[in-house]
Design goal:
This protein has 130 residues and is of the alpha/beta class. The protein has 5 helices and 5 strands, in the order βαβαβαβαβα. The longest helix has 15 residues.
Length: 130
Amino acid sequence: MNKPVILVVDDEKGVRNAITTFLKMSYDGDFKEAVNGEEAVKFIKSNHCDVMVLDLKMPKKSGIVVIKEAKEIDPNIDIFVMSAYESNEVAEEAMKLGATDYAVKPLDLKVISMKLDNILKKRGQLISKT
């Protein structure tokens, strides 16, 4: 089984670091980070990525634009969207564009873990450290 490549995309360094650190303790994967949507799309164009944990509201490229572009580059990428804005319209749009799952910030790290478990199980890539 291949280790999943997981890209955490959030313009807030503290949030990005907290998510990445937590996931590294729970999963055996290759974790990468991007500081904005532009950097995330650039990464996907030149690297394989299985799962993206993506903030919707970011400078340079919004999460919605990133979902569209990422799915054009790699239709098999799973995208878990997080947003501080609880809006059914935004969640529906993200899901229509191909996001795999959605959660509202502030996120409980257990929620991220549960949702990532589901995504990785579906992909056959769940390698838990616990």
